[in-house]
Design a protein that fits this description.
The structure holds 3 protein chains of 3 kinds. Chain B is mainly α. Chain B has 12 helices and 2 strands; from the N terminus they run αββααααααααααα. Chain C is mainly alpha-helical. Chain C has 14 helices and no strands. Chain C is globular and about 70 Å long. Classes of the chains: A alpha/beta, B mainly alpha, C mainly alpha. The interface between B and C is large, with 102 and 107 residues.
């Protein structure tokens, strides 16, 4: 009996002491790392968010590390297998299948219904194998950037709303001197946004769909696919509103627009900052929603960089909790408002995407209004699939291949790529 | 006990080689073998989750049209670029060696492209060679020659890349040849002069044979070496057509660039490793053949 | 023939050589000049494709030195390149000498083994190197950046070829004089390959100065970046700040040119005597 009593006394005091220590233990600071590529405004925005987050969560310390954009993928590739690197990594959504397959990412332990009810539909592209693998702070859509000064000089006051008006405006602005274009109506960027323009926008506007619902079958080897590519090619080949060979360098079409030599480009919302900074006071420019066919439906391409968890976040309960907390913090409504203001990427939450004040903004408005009809292509190999569509365009523009035939080749190549991915 | 001279030399050889061998084995060869091992697996971050796939990564290469195109391009880069690098390097080297006035100036001029950072000058070249806006086509047009598409044409892009690479690495080879030429003791030339040999005879009987070791180095470096080798091009291909690397239509794609894309964009390390193994074997064989075929026994 | 004419006579071959060399100046230097002139333009003017800046400005240089860690990257690159050159000169010439002049069993195997390391693209080595660096705590240190380059197959190959041409009798003479094997290498052989050594110094310096992938992977903090890694921060997802890239590149060229000028004097001095008369 006595022993029993002693036992209980000891047991109780152990429990008591443990109870007193446990919260203290929980306050032991947890350190997590956040990685993204280096971009001035993104770095500042995340630093601001980290400062606020750490103030609200004294037990968590967040280390923010950034790397040059060009080699960000290589940097992550080397670090994670060595047990180094971040708990939370920022990545382009199109990299998800490759990262997940190689074990660089783990699924998010967040309720699917919560994500689907609160985020814009394109976030569905972060869903694979029955799981969500990341959430964005900001998303992107495409719009038509136009050189207002050049457009007005060509006698046109309003940016085009239909493709017919687009071609007419392009013709009015294109200038050729001898064999050389000196000014373009439209700046072709096959590897920029134009491969999206064909796959997700023109093709759908012609009534087609690019892929099956499960994203495993290529469906653009169709009449709509051929029409989309033919129509796009006709801008150069028939209407002469531009030439794919026009502007040299890296971001050819965008650089040419900044130089004031190109009247219109299709570009992504994230480019606003660069364009604004590059154009300066050289000319007036504006942004308009992408054209449609007379009476046709609008479509757009959406994309995003998302925040995902690496295996490192799962090393301990405390780390996972801290990582999730931070991930939720940088994908909160407040964070998205800051992100739009500082970085210029569109909010990924429905509550903000439907905000009328944002939708009427002269620059961001056209992008935000496109959110409801934006599609994010589900890439299993973003680089490989982009290349296939870029080649499809170049076959038509550079080699004069029949658009239907070019689409057929592309569909065959891409199907092989998809099959190879899913069969491994 | 006194060791034979040959034994003593051998022992000293191993002493001299001890530390370097440790370096090459530990830092270069062991990691290479690790990379080779990766080619037999389906890559995963965690070692215990890498599944052994045998030679699947190798058989996959046979039906990879882009890779086969890269290998075909490699052949053309080699055929166009290697002779160009060697002949120009040797010619300019000989010229710079022969002059007496403004030697330093001209050496600096022809060496300058080699020190120019590749990213920046590739961009500048893409501006100069722009079909519509570039100064080269403006000049051609002024001279009554049709403008050329250069980097935007599937048939001209590869020669254009080769041109820029040869331009950039000319200084590298010129420097090697100058060092080789200056290493030839001057009393040889004096002796030849006394014998009444003319320029061509001197070149053929003294310069060329004594330059042979340099020519072998230059040849291997122009062919298979990293960065300067025509068969391992990467930076220039990437930067001359940045928005469509290896384009247009894969016409400038190189094996190293494709490997980089597979490894660090598709995170397909197993496959990338397999490609590297094949590339390694090809480059090693080519280099050994080159060394064997071109090396002549020479002693001053 | 009058005396004055005699002195003025220039061989036609020499004239031809100078004409060719002069014709080479423009294609060799023009892209360079373009790069430097771009660095004097504000970003708003970079894409105008005019050769001359309309209002030349040093603003890009000011920004580099005051608002980025450019001076630090410059220092890092200098440290890394200097140590690497010293190490490469010593080890590569020693190995090259051994392979060329000392007979020993396994010589060809070792030569091929070393040579073969040239044919593995760096991309496939950065993963194992990173793993190694993480294990031994080399990440984000100078040693971590430079260790893969302290010896090079190229240098070994170049020096082996250079030493191969030296007459054995010369080295034997050293042995008779009682020099150690190392002494023969250092005192007799090395001075005779000075031009190749100088070329190796120049090429190694430039190779390291421009190295990109491994220095990027090996560093974590911006303070440890080398020049090319730092400069690559100026190009991003939606465009490159060519005004800053060209400015950084123009400054980065200066040390390379200095190293070239210093060492190429050594090449010019050449080797006067073969030592065999």
């Amino acid at each position: 009996m006595r022993t029993m009593k002693t036992f209980f006394a000891v047991a109780l005091s152990v429990l008591f002491v443990a109870g007193a220590i446990a919260p203290a233990l929980a306050q032991e600071p947890v350190t997590i790392r956040y990685w993204q590529y280096y971009y001035d405004t993104k770095v500042t925005a995340i630093d601001t968010l980290i400062a606020q987050f750490e103030a609200e969560n004294p037990g968590i310390k967040v280390i923010h590390e950034t790397f040059p954009y060009e080699a960000y993928g290589a940097r992550v590739a080397a670090a994670v297998p060595a047990g180094q690197g971040p708990e939370i990594a920022n990545l382009f959504y199109g990299w998800l299948p490759a990262w997940a397959r190689a074990g660089y990412l783990q699924p998010l332990p967040i309720d699917h219904a919560e994500i689907e009810s609160e985020f814009v539909p394109m976030v569905r592209a972060a869903y694979m194998n029955g799981e969500y693998w990341g959430l964005p702070t900001g998303v992107r859509t495409l719009a038509l950037f136009y050189n207002k000064t050049m457009l007005n000089a060509a006698g046109i006051q309003e940016p085009p709303r239909t493709w017919d008006e687009f071609i007419a405006a392009g013709k009015a602005m294109a200038i050729k001197r001898g064999p050389f274009f000196v000014q373009l109506g439209y700046g072709f960027g096959p590897a920029g946004q134009d491969h999206h323009l064909i796959r997700e926008i023109l093709l759908r506007q012609f009534g087609g769909v690019p892929y099956s619902d499960d994203n495993r079958t290529v469906l653009y080897n169709s009449e709509a696919g051929a029409k989309a590519l033919e129509f796009y090619g006709s801008w150069q080949l028939t209407h002469g509103i531009g030439d794919v060979e026009f502007f040299p360098g890296r971001a050819t079409y965008r650089d040419g627009f900044i130089a004031g030599l190109i009247g219109m480009i299709v570009d992504v919302s994230f480019a606003i900052g660069t364009i604004r900074n590059g154009v300066g006071d050289n000319f007036e420019w504006g942004v308009a929603e992408l054209p449609v066919f007379d009476g046709g439906e609008p479509h757009n391409f959406g994309s995003f960089w998302m925040n995902g968890l690496t295996p490192r976040a799962f090393e301990s309960e405390a780390k996972l909790e801290a990582s999730l907390k931070f991930l939720r913090y940088i994908t909160s409504e407040e964070a998205m408002k800051l992100w739009l203001r500082e970085v210029g990427e569109l909010p990924a939450r429905l509550s903000l995407a439907e905000d009328p004040a944002l939708a009427s903004d002269p620059v961001y408005g056209p992008f935000i209004r496109s959110l409801p009809y934006s599609h994010a292509t589900f890439f299993v190999d973003e680089e490989g699939q982009r290349q296939i569509m870029v080649d499809a365009i170049n076959r038509v523009l550079l080699q004069g291949v029949d658009p239907a035939e070019s689409m057929r080749i592309a569909a065959e190549e891409e199907q092989a790529l998809l099959d190879a991915f899913w069969s491994r | 006990m006194k060791l034979k001279l040959s034994t003593r030399k051998a022992i000293w050889a191993y002493v001299f080689l001890a530390l370097p061998l440790l370096f090459y084995l530990g830092i270069r060869i062991f990691p290479t073998l690790q990379a080779f091992q990766m080619s037999l697996y389906d890559w995963h971050v965690q070692a215990d989750q890498r599944s052994f796939v045998g030679l699947a990564n190798y058989t996959r290469m046979l039906s990879d049209q882009r890779l086969l195109q890269a290998f075909r391009n490699m052949l053309w880069y080699g055929l166009l670029g290697v002779p160009a690098q060697l002949i120009l390097g040797l010619t300019v080297g000989l010229m710079l060696h022969s002059i007496k006035k403004f030697r330093g100036f001209f050496r600096a001029v022809f060496f300058a492209p080699y020190v120019a950072p590749a990213v920046a000058v590739s961009w500048v070249w893409s501006l100069l060679l722009s079909p519509h806006l570039g100064i080269v086509n403006q000049v051609l047009w002024y001279l009554g020659i049709d403008p050329q598409p250069f980097m935007t044409s599937p048939s001209q892009a590869l020669p254009t890349v080769t041109f820029v690479v040869v331009w950039q690495f000319l200084g590298f080879h010129v420097l090697l040849f100058l060092a080789g030429l200056e290493s030839i003791p001057r009393d040889y030339y004096e002796a030849a002069q006394i014998d009444g040999a003319n320029r061509w005879q001197t070149f053929k009987n003294i310069t060329l044979p004594l330059l042979n070791p340099t020519i072998v180095v230059s040849l291997v470096m122009a062919t298979a070496a990293p960065s300067t080798g025509m068969l391992q091009l990467f930076t220039h291909v990437m930067n001359l057509k940045f928005d469509d690397p290896g384009g247009p239509l894969g016409s400038t794609l190189t094996v190293v660039l494709y490997t980089y894309q597979r490894a660090f964009q598709a995170y397909d390390m197993g496959y990338a490793s397999a490609i590297v193994v094949v590339l390694f074997v090809i480059l090693l064989i080519i280099s050994l053949i080159q060394i064997r075929l071109t090396s002549r026994e020479v002693e001053y | 023939m009058a005396r004055g004419q005699q002195r003025l006579r220039v061989k036609p071959a020499t004239v031809f050589v100078y004409i060719v060399l002069i014709l080479g100046i423009v294609p060799m230097l023009f892209p360079f000049v373009w790069m430097v002139l771009t660095s004097l333009k504000p970003f708003q003017e970079v894409f105008s494709l005019n050769l001359l800046p309309s209002n030349p400005t040093l603003a890009n240089y000011v920004q580099l030195f005051s608002r980025t860690l450019f001076p630090r990257w410059f220092l890092n690159s200098t440290i890394v390149a200097a140590i690497t050159v010293a190490s490469v000169l010593f080890f590569d010439s020693l190995v090259g000498y051994t392979l060329a002049k000392l007979p020993f069993p396994g010589k060809n195997v070792i030569f091929v083994l070393i040579l073969s390391t040239m044919f593995v693209p760096t991309e496939m080595l950065v993963l194992p190197w990173y793993q190694m660096s993480a294990q031994y705590g080399w990440l984000d240190t100078y040693w971590g950046i430079l260790f893969p380059g302290i010896m090079t197959a190229f240098g070994v190959f170049l020096m082996r070829q250079a030493f191969a041409t030296l007459p054995d009798e010369l080295l034997d003479a050293g042995r008779i004089d009682g020099l150690s094997e190392f002494g023969i290498f250092l005192r007799i052989a090395l001075p005779l390959v000075k031009p190749s050594l100088a070329a190796l110094a120049i090429l190694t310096f430039i190779g390291n100065w421009n190295a990109y992938l491994w220095p990027l992977i090996a560093t974590e903090t911006r303070q440890m970046y080398t020049l090319p890694v730092g400069i690559s921060l100026f190009s991003g997802e939606v465009g490159a700040q060519w005004n800053l890239i060209t400015a950084g590149s123009a400054v980065a060229v200066i040390p390379m040119m200095i190293v070239f000028i210093i060492f190429q004097r050594q090449i010019l001095e050449g080797v006067v005597r073969s030592g065999l008369k």
